[in-house]
Automatic annotation (TrEMBL), chains A, B:
It is an enzyme of class 2 (transferase). It comes from Sideroxydans lithotrophicus (strain ES-1). GO terms for molecular function: O-phospho-L-serine:2-oxoglutarate aminotransferase activity; pyridoxal phosphate binding. Its main location: cytoplasm. Transmembrane segments: none annotated. Belongs to the class-V pyridoxal-phosphate-dependent aminotransferase family. SerC subfamily. The lineage of its organism: Bacteria, Pseudomonadati, Pseudomonadota, Betaproteobacteria, Nitrosomonadales. This is Phosphoserine aminotransferase. GO terms for cellular component: cytoplasm.
Length: 366, 366
């Protein structure tokens, strides 16, 4: 219906599936079961309570999440979590939390944690330009850390952990903003998972937090209400007016994952095929397209690469745009090219991009 | 087009104008000037920078806001401001800030301020059941308070200040969440104005803050980035991913206010006429409809009233709903009936409600 939306490779907010966009569009004038615009329905209505309950249930079903986890829908993005987590788990502590510094976003998380309490960086990829991730032999976890924090997928650099890090006796806290619900996940191995919506599961404006009940037992009691996970748990995510629209779109995405895609195993297969297409094009380009990340740590979500020089990159981006592709410019901190392959991007779109890349390379190397 | 939306008297999120809803609907699949879904456009795009710039300009134009004010678009609602304000202006202070306790929401603001520093409640309507507001002779402002905080319109109780409070030598901080851009406002008399969008200017998920530059001069430097107004000022409201969709809808509302309504003086006339219709119905009902608020302090936004008993109120609400009206139940803390008359509600809708009330009263008193 809209070819530009289909070819949107933006790093985020990312493309959403067309069937969901059509339902969202309808809801702007009229949510079918209510008759009112989604923008004018009270967050205290029975309808919205049912939205939150169904969405929570869908996330539990998709992830097989045990009952001792709370599912919260908050505002403020991952950035607010960068602060809320150490406010809750690190304030007043003398033993440092373990943090990994694997790219742009984990650097931001680290800086906010350091304001709140002691932090130990157990690995940093900064000196290597964030081109790879540590192996298990490079990671010495503290057995007495209040928690371990890491980011499962670094959106800017295109790096992704393909395993669960940490020790079972130290709470794992993981920012899954850019790969949440893109693949199955053994959620019960984490004490807290957070993910803003605007990559794989909805628009900007809402953040999902899964938190194990026991993690909050010793949390400070003097936090502002909106920064206290327990306020939001007690109020079923309606502590104050929540972002009703964004939460409703996330519900539609989870319905799409369950009913149209058929679950996260199937979603992961599709995402894997999109990434394989792109990485094959890089690997078989005789160095024309140069992947940023080391092969073992490449992200299935963000394929980052460079061309011979910035002039060629500019020409590539301009021609891609003229051909209807958008969102391919790399993050402003790194430059280069980034093709983001979130849930909403179709396999057909990845095929089209690979076709374009093939043509561009042939023309340039003719 | 959708009669139910037209008759939505919800206390918030409130009804938005139909012409805006139609533009929003279009943008879900395609923002005209971009070609992409509004949900998938990067917040770092030129388009979004232009949205923020135009919206800021529109607010400046509507309010005649001087250049020494910053215009910010934040997340977390008024609730986040309840904390951010004392974190910024009260932490480490020994002189208390002046707070008014005029209803449900100012009580929430007060409780959060008390966590952060010393607070003096200069007037409370609690013992009187929040049925009126103080006159000038009841208010003894502290000349050395770091600031004065009050709420211009108490949504739950239907109380509104029809004047500016405070002293010119003490910064005024005002929560205008439920009457912002519903009427002209001498914004330059305040040091900080905040308003979440979901009453008069958009959907839930974004909060407008107008802050005078000098107010932040002595703010603490150790706040988390997302709770520091200066981070957001420096980043032009893109410190982290903002709620792109909600901000875009607020832009469309400001365009509607400027181009379709013709400015805030005209908007205030319409809002006044709607309120006059309702209050006349109350005043001329021989006590059938009993206004909650004292006449001098009645809100132009939220008309709150009771009927003879809760059974009659229930019947009123049920018949109103059957007739297509929605959102008329009073806040869960007070019960009764509340008709909210935000910008998006048309004069014709207020006329229809008054007609319904008239009929209901005749039937009951026949």
């Amino acid at each position: 219906m809209n070819q530009l939306n289909n070819l949107n490779f933006s790093g985020g907010p990312g493309a959403l599936p067309e069937s969901v966009l059509l339902k969202v569009q309808q809801s702007i004038l009229e949510v079918p079961e209510v008759g009112l615009s989604v923008l004018g329905i009270s967050h205290r209505s029975d309808w919205f309570a049912a939205v939150v309950a169904e969405l929570e249930g869908n996330i539990r079903k998709l992830l097989g999440l045990p009952d001792n986890y709370h599912v919260l829908f908050l505002q403020g993005g991952a950035t607010q979590q960068f602060s809320m987590i150490p406010m809750t788990l690190l304030r007043g502590k003398t033993t440092p939390a373990d943090y990994l510094h694997t790219g742009y976003w984990s650097g931001k998380a680290l800086a906010e944690a350091e304001r709140e309490g002691p932090v130990r960086v157990i690995w940093s990829g900064e000196s290597g330009g964030f081109k790879d991730l540590p192996g298990d032999d490079e990671l010495a976890y503290s057995p007495d850390a209040p928690y371990l924090h890491y980011i499962s997928n670094e959106t800017v650099e295109g790096l992704q952990f393909h395993r669960v890090l940490g020790r079972d006796d130290v709470p794992r806290v993981c920012d899954m903003s850019s790969d949440f619900l893109s693949q199955p996940c053994t959620a019960e191995r984490y004490s807290l998972i957070y993910a803003h919506a605007q990559k794989n599961i909805g628009p900007a404006g809402v953040t999902v937090v899964l938190v194990r009940d026991e993690l909050l037992e010793d949390a400070p009691t003097d936090l502002p209400g909106f920064l206290d996970y327990r306020s939001h748990i007690k109020a079923h995510s309606i502590f104050n007016t929540p972002p009703v629209f964004a939460i409703y779109v996330v519900l539609l995405i989870t319905r799409w994952l369950l009913d149209e895609i058929g679950g996260l195993t199937r979603m992961a297969e599709i995402n894997r095929r999109k990434a394989d297409l792109l990485y094959s094009q890089l690997d078989n380009s005789d160095g024309f397209y140069r992947g940023r990340a080391k092969t073992k740590d490449r992200s299935l979500m963000n394929v980052t690469f460079n061309l011979a020089d910035t002039d060629t990159e500019k020409r590539f981006l301009a021609e891609a745009q003229a051909a209807g592709f958008s969102g391919l410019a790399g993050h402003r901190s790194t430059g280069g090219v980034r093709a983001s392959l979130y849930n909403g991007l179709t396999l057909a779109a990845a095929e089209q991009l690979v076709g374009f890349m093939e043509d561009f390379r042939r023309k340039q190397t003719r």
